[in-house]
């Protein structure tokens, strides 16, 4: 049965241009890691905080320091909980999200991998890992992981949405627009309607225009 509603809505940010004037579009996901990646870590990861209202440089620095200290404390607390409950998938997923949010991408990846060792084939964990790989610039790993998820759950619309973007907007010379279009079209077929479908349609139009 087709998924009519993805669990995690997306937004898209065009943050840079490739050397050949091709747009790099990064997926900003609410990966539901126990923390919301969108609101905080993505601003942090791509430097978008400069667009946020600021009272003063000093106030901003203080807020950032407090935020970092808070994340560090959450990580420390979760690490202790994971030691006590090493097979708790919810704790592991939250810890992975906080690692990413705190700039510890490799630790996030390793934590997702550990969770998948406990529960192999978990679709959500697989998508979270694929998304983390992509945001780290490990495009081959991202694509491989997303393809694995689709083999397990071919009707998962969100997985096709991710894979389409991984193919079409990867920031290296292996970009494959045609495969990206195929996956985005499959997402639309499965999802049928909604904000993400509108965005996917816009992406398809842009990609086709770019490659005329």
Automatic annotation (TrEMBL):
For this entry, the protein name equals Tetratricopeptide repeat-containing protein
Q: Which UniProt keywords apply?
A: Membrane, Repeat, TPR repeat, Transmembrane, Transmembrane helix
Supply the InterPro entries for this chain. Answer: TPR-like_helical_dom_sf, TPR_rpt, Ycf3
Spell out the coiled coil positions from the record: none
Q: Which Pfam families match?
A: TPR_19 (PF14559)
- Gene3D superfamilies, per database record: Tetratricopeptide repeat domain
Name the domain of life: Bacteria
Q: Is Transmembrane helix among this UniProt entry's keywords?
A: yes
């Amino acid at each position: 049965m087709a998924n009519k509603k993805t669990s995690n809505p997306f937004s898209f940010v065009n943050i840079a241009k490739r050397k050949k004037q091709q747009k790099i579009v990064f997926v900003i996901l609410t990966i539901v890691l126990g923390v919301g990646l969108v609101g905080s870590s993505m601003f942090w990861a791509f430097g978008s905080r400069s667009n946020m209202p600021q009272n003063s440089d000093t106030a901003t620095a203080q807020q950032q320091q407090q935020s970092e200290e808070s994340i560090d404390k959450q990580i420390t607390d979760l690490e202790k909980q994971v030691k006590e409950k090493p097979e708790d998938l919810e704790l592991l997923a939250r810890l992975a999200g906080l690692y990413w949010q705190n700039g510890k991408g490799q630790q996030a990846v390793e934590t997702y991998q550990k969770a998948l060792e406990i529960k192999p084939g978990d679709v959500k964990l697989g998508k979270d890992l694929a998304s983390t790989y992509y945001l780290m610039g490990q495009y081959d790993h991202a694509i491989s992981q997303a393809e694995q998820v689709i083999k397990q759950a071919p009707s998962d619309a969100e997985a096709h949405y991710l894979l389409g973007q991984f193919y079409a907007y990867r920031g290296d010379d292996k970009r494959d627009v045609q495969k990206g279009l195929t996956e985005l079209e499959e997402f639309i077929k499965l999802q049928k309607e909604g904000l993400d479908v509108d965005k996917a349609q816009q992406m398809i139009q842009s990609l086709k225009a770019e490659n005329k």
